[in-house]
TrEMBL record, chains A, B:
One Pfam family hit: FAD-oxidase_C
Record domain FAD-binding PCMH-type: where: 43-221
Recorded GO MF terms: FAD binding; oxidoreductase activity
Taxonomy of the source species: Bacteria, Pseudomonadati, Pseudomonadota, Acidithiobacillia, Acidithiobacillales
UniProt-recorded name of the protein: Glycolate oxidase subunit GlcD
Tree of life domain: Bacteria
Gene: glcD
Alphabetical UniProt keywords: FAD, Flavoprotein, Oxidoreductase
Gene3D superfamilies documented for this protein: 3.30.465.10, 3.30.70.2740, Vanillyl-alcohol Oxidase, Chain A, domain 4
Cofactor names: FAD
């Protein structure tokens, strides 16, 4: 803020106070504490204030006041993100979209839902179920996380192998730019003229605009569903089975892998009936009409046997199916009970590199003296190694970070990326320097500048400054000059 | 170009001449004529020169020379585009990518193809067929059109209902920016960190960068395929049948509609065995394993009967199937024989609005005294009304343009868009003023500026200048000032 800092600050807050109801503006330290971090709880910062607008007009007015006073804005959904994307920045306000939680329309003939950003992911499927429809992307946090945050992170879930990420299930967005101007992006038509701003908004982590309404694609609930549980004597055999299923042209609704450490932890925790002696298990969900299902079941069973599955269980009834999934969904907290702390990684690799990457992680695990459990979306090549450590032992903390960084660099080296679905946020800024060249990072900053020339939307997130990468040694800085001086401010 | 125009011009051409082999630089008027337009042949302009580089390094060098001399660049694939996207601009060079036509790799385990932009669409599927794979998007021009052009237009085709547009089938791109710097965009992983530049490049009509390599997703050739031909006594009944099929959760591989005028024209031309007395026909392709196919066939047959189909034919053998598709694929030239000229429209609408939009087109057809044939991707809501007229009768020419504009405005009004797959190019610049608000257009221009600040890549295409829209009366111009003065140059 310009001018005398104190008077500017007071003027800014009183402008917000004049706009919002009493409970729509939080400025007291005790009220701000719940907002000091998101799911990445190791990084905390108190915001200047938290605003909780109730509708688009209030969001617009907040953005205009922030523009007038030059204040940065950190948008926030449910705060379940794992990479610190909603962590406040010093001097910024947190713009919570939690009160924009109306389902505006459910259109059965067109199979769409129009919802505000603060609607919880699961609430959409619950509302659509009486019409036989549901919203497909299902992140593990779907009970709590909201659709605005899903758009910001381009969230996936167990079923995104078949049904796609958030980007594949959102048809249109209403977005406010940093100055509060309204943009309608996308349509119900399959393609739109102009540049694809819709895809650009997906996974942009709140850096490009504020979503105030989403039009979502709904799908018919599948007629039948079953889950296969296959056990393997080695992680490599399980990984090869994943490749074999996909190579056969079968796209399961979900295809998840867990290794022995994860199996035992989950079994102790929820008693799902997993085979404790297996080196790895696959959970493979199939859905469709009865005839499709039986045909695919036969094909998958044959493939699993050919790939050396030591046992195969089929859960056709809802109860057993849910129990098998319960073990998978509880795997993170279950593994969490094995050590004081765990570091959840999120990288993607081309599917055919699964076996070798898992082998390399096992080698490093021994080398660093840290146990690593693997529970992940195998069909997508989206890994979630969980590194177990004790944060009170300093060497273990550093070793966990170093091991994590090596795993992400390996993901990039085999042609994958440093994040599958958890985003970059503040957690992975340094890894972005490994993922992208200076030319590519500069292009990302120019996109940011095209939406937010002053860099006031969620500053310091998602795309590292060129200086930061230069300091990490990833970039040549000629006589102290970065190659793209016009991008100094990012 | 700055400096003495003649000497700058000569210096520019001799820089290109030093770089390229003799047949890689065309400057003589007779050599330039084949490049004066693309598939939109009514708009012609001779370029300054045509360059035909052979590999990425030559493309880079051409771009650097153009940057040095401030010359604009019009990229060109096979020149089959229908909206004038590859039409030369005065003083610009045409950068033909026709000689970058190598298939660099076919990876069966990962099911991907790595190809240069000048590879023909159909050539990819031909090369992949021995491995049981193919590339899904199949625009009607697939014998001739190249993958670089498909990326530029985000091309679809008969099968994009089930298998998606180009954007859904491209995994990664190598792109040169306007200064020749290389960007690697996308990966083989399902999601990438950073903003989604991959989707942004799709359909960007050569305004953001030059594609020098594409990594494509290949699909397994379906085990079985069959085509249903259903006849209806009214266009509305056929449109309702389309909605009923999709509402039942069935996604056919293709779902096309033809009205009576199109049926008769196609029948006279290729004798596909279409029912001449039908008001409309649907062609519905189903694919999958034998069990899936039989199950879906029964479901679709039942739905078609319930929706009042007057006859249903099933083509299971390849010969009949191809004959039925031949009529559809030849429909444009067949309709072309009915009148001296035809104007091929390309708009999209939400599927459930099909019946009412077709009815309105019929009313306007009578009102304007111009016959309109409809042949289109019904499942996608992608209309292709063909307006028949005689360009030698001036009133007919104007009437055809006016009718076309009204149809596009109707598409926008019902929630659709002014182009499905043919792009904006130069043809639809004015319609873009109806599709987007000034705020939205300004955002598109800022995206352009983030890639090409001087506006030298394919200038004057795809996104109209704000001045142009203002002159059309779509925008308020305050005291002669546009609302976004920093975007004056676009």
């Amino acid at each position: 803020m310009a001018g005398s800092p104190d008077s500017e600050h007071a003027a800014f807050l009183s402008a917000l106070r004049a706009l919002l109801p009493d409970d729509g503006l939080l400025t007291q330290s005790e009220d701000l504490h719940p907002y000091e971090c998101d799911g990445l709880s190791v990084l905390r910062e108190l915001p200047l204030a938290v605003v909780l607008p109730r509708h688009r007009a209030e969001v617009q007015a907040v953005l205009k006041i922030c523009q007038q006073y030059g204040v940065a804005v950190v948008p926030r959904g449910a705060g379940t993100g794992l990479s610190g994307g909603a962590r406040p920045s010093a001097g910024a306000i947190v713009l919570s979209l939690a009160r924009l939680k109306q389902i505006r329309a459910l259109d059965t003939s067109n199979r769409t839902a129009r919802v505000q950003p603060g609607v919880r992911n699961l609430a959409i499927s619950e509302a659509a179920r009486p019409m036989g429809l549901y919203y497909a992307p299902d992140p593990s946090s779907q009970i709590a996380c909201t659709i605005g945050g899903n758009v910001a992170e381009n969230s996936g879930g167990v079923h995104c192998l078949k049904y796609g990420l958030t980007v594949h299930n959102v048809l249109a967005l209403e977005v406010l730019d940093v100055s509060g101007e309204r943009l309608e992006i996308g349509s119900q038509a399959p393609d739109s003229p102009g540049y694809d701003l819709l895809a650009l908004m997906m996974g942009s982590e709140g850096l490009l605009g504020i979503v105030t309404e989403c039009t979502l694609r709904l799908l018919p609930v599948p007629e039948n569903t079953l889950v296969l549980l296959a056990a393997f004597a080695s992680v490599v055999a399980a990984a090869d089975a994943v490749s074999a299923i996909i190579a056969a042209g079968i796209i399961p609704a979900g295809l998840e892998m867990m290794d022995q450490l994860a199996i035992e932890a989950a079994e102790d925790f929820v008693h799902a009936g997993y085979p404790r002696d297996a080196a790895a298990i696959l959970l493979c969900e199939l859905d469709g009409t009865e005839a499709e299902l039986q045909e695919r079941l036969r094909a998958v069973e044959k493939l699993l046997q050919r790939q050396g599955a030591t046992s195969i269980r089929i859960a056709a009834d809802a109860e057993t199916r849910l129990l098998l999934w319960k073990g998978r969904k509880a795997a993170f907290p279950a593994v969490g009970r094995l050590a004081p702390d765990y570091y959840c990684m999120d990288g993607t690799i081309p599917r055919r590199r699964l076996a070798e990457v898992l082998e390399q992680i096992a080698i490093w695990s021994a080398e660093y003296g840290l146990r690593v459990a693997n529970v992940f979306h195998a069909g997508d090549g989206n890994l979630h190694p969980l590194i177990l450590y004790d944060a009170n032992v300093e060497e273990q903390l550093y070793a966990a970070e170093a091991l994590g960084q090596r795993i992400l660099e390996l993901c990039v080296a085999v042609g994958g990326s440093i994040t599958g679905e958890h985003g970059v946020g503040v957690e992975k800024l340094d890894s972005m320097c490994a993922q992208f060249t200076p030319t590519e990072l500069a292009q990302l900053h120019r996109i940011k500048a095209a939406f937010d020339p002053e860099g006031r939307l969620n500053p310091g997130k998602a795309v590292p400054s060129l200086h930061r990468c230069a300091e990490l040694g990833a970039m040549h800085v000629h006589h102290g000059q970065l190659p793209f001086p016009e991008l100094e401010r990012f």
